[in-house]
Amino acid sequence: MLLAMMSPLLADPLRLLWLRSLARKRAQTLALFLGGYALVWLAAGLPLHLFGLALLTFSPSPWLAFAVACGTAWLWQASPPRRHCLQACHHQPQLPAFGWPAAAAALRYGLSSGGWCVASCGVWMLPPLLAGPGHLPMMATVGLWLLLERRRPDSAPTTPFIPKPLRPAARKRLPAI
């Protein structure tokens, strides 16, 4: 699942590492980045699977568990902290070219990129886990959604579920007495 859904999202970080590393150290740099990225996702996979198992265990039907997973993912999708995590995914660190600092920076970049990716996209792994026989189409749909979202030009955070008069910027201050 990690390989199928997240590999298209790694094109930009891998291209950055490819361009900023020495040719003779390129394979090592890419391997350290991918190792750090995969390590974070593997660590996050256990809680995600346990949460999915708990949903299946305590819900009266598998479809209800799937609906709860989709609802949870959509709520997280609309939240401002998720938007912050998504913007942090685009961070491009300074990468040294020589010696152990280059290797450490590639590993650190993989760990941080994986951490921000788990924070912004991890909840979206639940619906494919709970889709049953529709696992593969759901995985393709979620993967395409995340790829299109990652490719979208950065814009100001949106608040789609808050009516305009209730948004903080739209409130008018009362005059002081």
Summary keywords:
elongated, 177 residues, mainly alpha, 66% helix
What's the gist of this structure?
This protein has eight helices and no strands. It has 177 residues and is mainly α.
Strand content: under 5%
**Overall 3D geometry?**
elongated
Amino-to-carboxy terminus distance: 61 Å
Helical segment tally? 8
Which structural class do you get from the secondary structure elements? mainly alpha
Low-pLDDT segments: 155-163
N-to-C SSE string, H for helix and E for strand: HHHHHHHH
- Overall strand count: 0
Indicate the multimeric state.
single chain
Mean pLDDT, nearest integer?
Answer: 83
- Main sheet specs: none
Helix share of residues? Answer: 55-70%
